[in-house]
Amino acid sequence: MTQNVSGRVGAAVLAGLDTGLCAICAATIVAFSVMLIAQVGLRQIGEPLFWIEEVCQYLMVYLCFLGTAIAWGRREHLVVDFLPSLLPDTPRKVLTFAVDAVVLVFAAWAAWASAEFALYSMRKISISLEAPVGYGYLGAPIGFAIVSLQSLIFMVCGEKGQVLSRQPELEEVGM
Signal sequence span per UniProt (predicted)? Predict the structure, then answer.
């Protein structure tokens, strides 16, 4: 009974994170595209805005780390699955748990280290934006913190906490 409840709660948290992260990444891609198109047009008329390039660099940082969290939360991150596919159910679950534990430890450390770097970078002011550079680097600790949370949910809830991929399997679509 408890596993059922924790599995449903875990799945709900993962689904909410997935939806929110997808919305943020979609908005980031739109903003990135609009700014780059505007920059190309402005360069053609000889009036480029230099801050656009820096904002696009920071948006790319956020997109990279938030996209990583989306892939990890869906269990669609690049993975070598040769060994797990050969194992019976129980050893496969143990291996998956161990991998989740390693990812949790690494992601928690990376969130802490990148947060320290972002906070340290707040002292440096961007010339073109006239804002602390650290804001551009906050995507890394945010993304790693989300991956840590997802790994913890996977470990506590097991397979029931997984959000299934939104893309149908090839067999389902007749390929």
Answer: none
State how far the Cα of 154 lies from the Cα of 107, in Å rounded to an integer. 14
The string of DSSP letters for 112-146 reads: HHHHHHHHHHTTSBPTTT-SBTHHHHTHHHHHHHH
Residue of 50, 49, 57, 51 whose CA lies nearest to 32: 57
pTM summary value: 0.84
Tell me phi and psi for residue 132, to 5 degrees.
-60, 135
Output DSSP code: residue 87.
Answer: S
Amino acid occupying residue 155:
M
Whether residue 158 is predicted with pLDDT greater than 90 in this model: the reply is no
Q: Is 79 helix (H, G, I), strand (E, B) or coil?
A: coil
